[in-house]
Specification:
The chain is of the alpha/beta class and about 190 residues long. The chain has 5 helices and 9 strands. The radius of gyration is 17 Å and the shape is globular.
Length: about 190
């Protein structure tokens, strides 16, 4: 019997560790427009002082303007910090705003860049919220790699670490295709 990664090969049979099996089955990289997802929830990265004027945040603001307005009100009242999560439930889709980027509160201040520690904290909190709220499926972009500026090869393992063993389908929108619905069918 010889070991190769997480798979053990013995007499032509392949057994996968339960962690790897869950990742293979439950996390799916897809191409398409995340706004057309059939997932129960969407998670994306923002800054605590985000204006929702760039990237996916802008598209979400255009689709759900009340979410951006509610976020601004929340940020002015609560002064959230990087690493926190703010959930908004609108029109059948729950949106998890992960504060992966730095950002100070004040008039005219712009969001900063994301950091791996912030992403790590957000994903821990997201996992907790997904379980607590009984979320049945999640769509997430290549978190913190657009406006946030992080390297996907460093963020992807954090998503697998924190969400890989959840028993819900997670659709990672690895490639954006405007107006194209991703194939989110799962064979579980």
């Amino acid at each position: 019997m010889r070991s190769r990664g997480n798979a053990i090969h013995a007499a032509g049979n392949v057994r996968l560790s339960s962690c790897l099996l869950n990742e293979v089955i439950m996390i799916h990289e897809v191409s398409g427009d995340i706004l057309l997802t059939t997932a129960q929830a969407i998670a994306h990265g923002v800054a605590p002082n985000d204006h929702f004027d760039q990237g996916l945040a802008l598209a979400l603001r255009e689709k759900w303007p009340s979410m951006a307005k509610d976020f601004r009100h929340y940020a002015q009242q609560c002064h959230p910090k990087a690493g926190e999560v703010w959930a908004w439930g609108g029109f059948g889709t729950r949106i998890f705003n992960l504060m992966t980027q730095e950002g100070e509160h004040g008039h005219g201040l712009r969001p900063g860049k994301a950091s791996l520690p912030n992403v790590n904290h957000c994903l821990k909190r997201l996992r907790h919220d997904l379980v607590k709220d009984n979320i049945t499926s999640l769509a997430i972009p290549k978190l913190a790699t657009g406006v946030g500026g992080l390297d996907w090869d460093k963020v992807r393992p954090l998503i697998r670490e924190h969400l890989g063993d959840l028993q819900i389908p997670i659709y990672v929108y690895a490639h954006y295709e405007k107006g194209v619905q991703a194939n989110e069918s799962t064979k579980i």
